[in-house]
Amino acid sequence: MTKKYNWAILGCGKIAKKFALELKGLPNANLYAAASRSIENANSFASEFGFEKAFGSYEEMAEDPNVDIVYIATPHSHHLKHTLLCLNNKKAVLCEKAFAMNFKEVQQMIKTSKDTNTFLMEAFWVLFRPKFKKVLELIKNEDLGKLKMVKSDFNFLGEYNPENRLFNIDLGASSLLDVGIYPVFTSLMLLGKPNQVKTIPQFSPTGSEESITVFLGHENGSTAILNSSFKSEYKNDVELSFEKGYIKYDRFSNEPILMQTTTKNTLISFDPGPNLGYQFEAQHVMECLDKHLIESPILPLSLSADLMKILDTIRQEAGIVFPNHD
Asked: Any residues with CB less than 8 A from the CB of 42 and at least 6 apart, and which?
């Protein structure tokens, strides 16, 4: 008989609502607890999505012996503190990206996971989506030759507000850590770790980085051009250039993948599954716990550590500083 897990949500914001909506569709996930800094917010969230309990304190939720897994959906400036709280209370953790503010914090999280023998994974949901799996399959099975360039973008126009998490440095404001992490992750997955990093950043009136273009070089001659911004709208496509053709796809939509070679253009469809795809990462966490694992074999902690090292290098090159974390 399949074990049913009690899930708790730590932080009841926008991303938590998307996650909770899809978590409801998993038969082995029980919507157990919602936790916010105010009991009013927690009660509202719990009522909206059907959670059994509401907590106006993260500490109180983490100490509840019935909680099995905690999804952490607070700003990344708080991920270290909230992850350690849950791990030290022996709660499995699925923590939103960016995993933390820097590599030093990620090291602490990984060490605590191992010391407490408790599961920890970064919530990089796109890795588990059928579309990205199909792209990896095409790269592996199609005779496109070597991958020479990755171009990836994630831009949107955010309303300027100095107190908002998009522009408040104290909350880790940075297009790089918020949405630029997707292009960087794509490059890491497909090209590996770079040996050259160049950047062109733009800063907001608060001093936060609001737009950045990143150029990555690799020892084998491959390159990546990555863009992120809160100040402009743009297609959020990924383009992969090979010796004998290219693959192009939209990161989040269910539109077909375009593959072009010297002889033909092909639109490749796939089964997207229901909803956006957050349920795939949640299901994977429960499968790992069924096997008594403390990290994912698909998204191991070493991958999250490598990603944060690259982000640190990009920030250093661009002059992006977080006074409370660096």
From this structure: 12, 34, 35, 36, 54, 55, 56
